[in-house]
Design a protein that fits this description.
about 525 residues; alpha/beta; Rossmann fold; GMP Synthetase, Chain A, domain 3; 3 domains; 6-stranded mixed sheet; 14 helices; elongated
Amino acid sequence: MPIAQPPAPTAPVTSHLPKIALVGRPNVGKSTLFNRLIRANRAITHDRPGVTRDRMEGQVRSRGKRTFAIVDTGGITLDAHAAVAEGPEGIRGFEAEILRQAEAAMAEAAGICLVVDGRDGLTPFDEHLAAHLRRAGKPVLVVVNKVDGVEREDEMLAEFHALGFPLLPVSAAHGHNVRALADEMRDMLPGGPDEPDGPDEPEEGDEAGEAGDADDFGPAQDGDGAEDEGAESGAPAAETKGPAYDPTHLRLAMLGRPNAGKSSLVNALSGQQRMIVSDVAGTTRDSVDVSFESGDRTITFVDTAGVRRRSRITDSVERFSVNASLKSTTKAHVTLLVLDALQGVTQQDKRLVDLLDERKTPFMVLVNKIDLVPRKLMPDLEASFKGMLEFCPHVPLLYVSAKSGKGLGPVLPMAERIRAECHVRVGTGQLNRAMEEVLTRHQPPVVRRVRPKFFYLTQAETNPPTFVFFVNDADRIQTPYARYVEKALRRMFRIEHAPMRVRFRSSHKKKGE
């Protein structure tokens, strides 16, 4: 039997914006500068070198000025022959992959910003990378970072003139000269800085206007590095409206333990070698968007860092990565929980399932590496994973292999179906006819000598579908009957895989009385 393959993707989505690539050796402040320019804490920043490995894209917007994209890349370590050299501990073993990602970003970019550290001065890695960029034949601007004021600019820039490129001193941490940097980047774009590109809508957090560097490129907003208390305590998140329904765009978050194969699945499903893949657990640290076009729709994967038990996390970078991973599930249309078939069901897998189910997050489970499981062990394996989903049987369970492509065909159609079900809206008349059918088939049991009375039913909201039953005494509705009601609603309205809320509210009057 031929292996079902996912829909063939076309070219990667670049949002039709010209790009500027940020490159440099490790720990010069590229990610801090990236966050400052896009005004959001997208990239994890830390004093430790080598935190960024995969490339990440964002948009630079200012009112009345041209919008463009910037690409953050990992730290590059080259020797005098333009070959990868051993880097600091944070990227050791990943140097070649990081260079490949950075070169892909530079190939797509209209211009390149070489970020250097003004405090450290000119280093051999800076010189070797500058020589490599000189052969690229693209506009290059040397951004001398960590220059906190004009009084030290001349002193800290002096030795970088030897590189032979234009220089600009900035401070990503304090915002010094960041607006000037954005303008210099626009000058590097094809067509010049003022080429019209349609209406320029401000992003969230862009409320400061043109008041100056500290306002226009102020501290990043809505950071993924903030602590996620809901994830710590297991408490459900506040009920908020999810992403608006747009059939032309599907956003999928990858979630799972380290080394479950999330990045490999992103590469396989998108048809791009976009994420660095390694047997080393914890390779992915930032939550990275990977977009591509499939037919008439855009699909964006959010690849995230592996989520371990909090009691085992002692590293601050990993803590930020885990928080970013959990937050990504709240911003996606559907979450793909990736589990390792070779590891079986673990306690952390159960915790993640419980967390997603409690928050009513639309999700599906992908059991990866299924090609490595002996056939005779499959029945027991399937039974264990089905048992894990006993309390949320609506969640789809697919067995896949990122390496061989086995089982990948149904993944995207199932994700589309889940999202469509999340936006089902049922009229009140149809709901109450359904309620009568449910009650006729099986009345609620008598509780404390009184049988609960149902008055009417309404749908309070979508995403997820939320149904409210008005009854004489909600405390008399027992859990088994509530499950029966939910199953009946799912069957009648064909909401098979999306999360659903069914609530019972006490009322002493029928509707209209």
